[in-house]
Specification:
Chain lengths: 253, 253
């Protein structure tokens, strides 16, 4: 078994980096070979634009989707994108380690999604959703850190329900075929002006042990549920007989 | 009245750029002065990291929040960030124009949020939410384009309910004090292999007229509802007496 850890944090000694290193150790102990894509250290360019495409479908007008499709068809995807896709293709498990910034991933990881999940090579209208996606059979797992405490991210918390905040990210992973495991969250990891260092250290150590335990359970963790191709009618709406797994895609009267 | 249009699309002739130009014209005709922050053309750097901070709270460890706070306190925020904040401060209305990529904003706009909405200068625990946020009294409006058709983004659509997909973005704007107006969406704007050019042109012209009409109605559009400071108890959870406006922050049994 082989795992890829995608790490998105600017500080190489960050708690996110420590969790990524711990995950690597834990997975290695479980018999995985592991590689890490450290997006900041690798200098990943998050900006999708014309610079990346050597052969163009339309030299006069840059559409990200059209050029991704053309580059996929002609084998001219940018080298860093193709390399990232190959890393995903050889992984059985992909762990995304990042801090929650403005209720989403940091820009460097957002740009990784924008560029690496390329129309054509990675998805198309006939190659998407958990049943037909390119990465079908592989697991993905989000490990996220936050500045605010856990209660703030509960269903009635002032920062919003973390399960729903992560839905767009999880749905994107399911869209390209991943079996998405429940996320692991480390709350309140930023040292505030009144944070006692020992309290913080104990908390962080607890989360490190928690992530190891979470990874140790991946064989038994139930993946999140998403609709599959047959659940949509010809207009792209949920069939009355299909299940609803989230407020994001629900039955309407 | 003064408006700022924040545009995030790599192609200068894109439909997004055309909508931004139309919005500028429409707002000018309404008596606004208007400036545009064209993030790609301006070369905005979306990566939050140590390079941007000349004076550091901690030279040995980069925390985005801690360094934003320190730079805010010492007047050493990066020039491009301070300039973006000043543009926001002089605007009565901010329009965000972007394509929906992977159920969120493009990386360049995500990084703009990551860097410009700086802890200290823009928000703090005592300076947030619509009642106490830094940009209180200003309006914000999202104008988003999609590749998939409108039905796919309905409550039972295969792409997910657009109102919920935009919640993390809208909530972030409300968090820094904006009065968030209902979004405007232009669906199915990408030229597919089977798209009839005349059909697409007619559709795009309709959306241009629609955005102008939407902007023409900003004085009467009802802002989205978000909870304010008094709605949270001392643990950061919704008081039983406070209203719930979204599944993201809801009452639990």
């Amino acid at each position: 078994m082989h795992a890829l850890i995608v790490l998105a944090h600017p500080e190489e000694k960050s708690f996110n980096a420590q969790l990524a290193a711990d995950a690597r150790e834990a997975l290695t102990a479980m018999g995985y070979t592991v590689e890490t894509a450290d997006l900041y250290r690798d200098g990943f360019d998050p900006l999708e634009d014309a610079r990346h495409f050597s052969s163009r479908a339309d030299n006069a007008f840059f559409s990200a989707m059209i050029e991704q499709r053309h580059a996929s068809d002609t084998g001219t995807l940018p080298t860093d994108v193709e390399s990232a896709i190959v890393k995903l293709e050889r992984a059985d498990l992909v762990v995304f380690q990042f801090p929650l910034w403005w209720w989403s991933v940091p820009a460097i990881l957002k740009g990784w999604f924008d560029r690496v999940f390329a129309w054509g090579r990675v998805y198309s209208s006939g190659k998407r959703y958990p049943d037909r996606g390119h990465f079908k059979g592989k697991r993905a797992l989000v490990s996220v850190t936050t500045g605010a405490p856990g209660l703030a991210f509960g269903p009635n918390g002032r920062a919003g329900d973390l399960d729903l905040i992560l839905w767009p990210i999880h749905f994107g992973l399911a869209y390209v075929g991943f079996s998405v495991l429940p996320h692991f969250a480390s709350f309140e990891v930023v040292k505030g002006p009144n944070t006692d260092p020992d309290t913080l250290r104990t908390r962080l150590d607890g989360y490190k042990a928690g992530l190891r335990a979470h990874l140790g359970a991946i064989e038994t963790l139930e993946p999140l549920k998403f609709n599959t191709t047959a659940d949509w009618d010809e207009t792209g709406r949920l069939r009355p007989t299909a299940p609803s797994y989230s407020p994001f895609i629900r039955h309407v009267a």
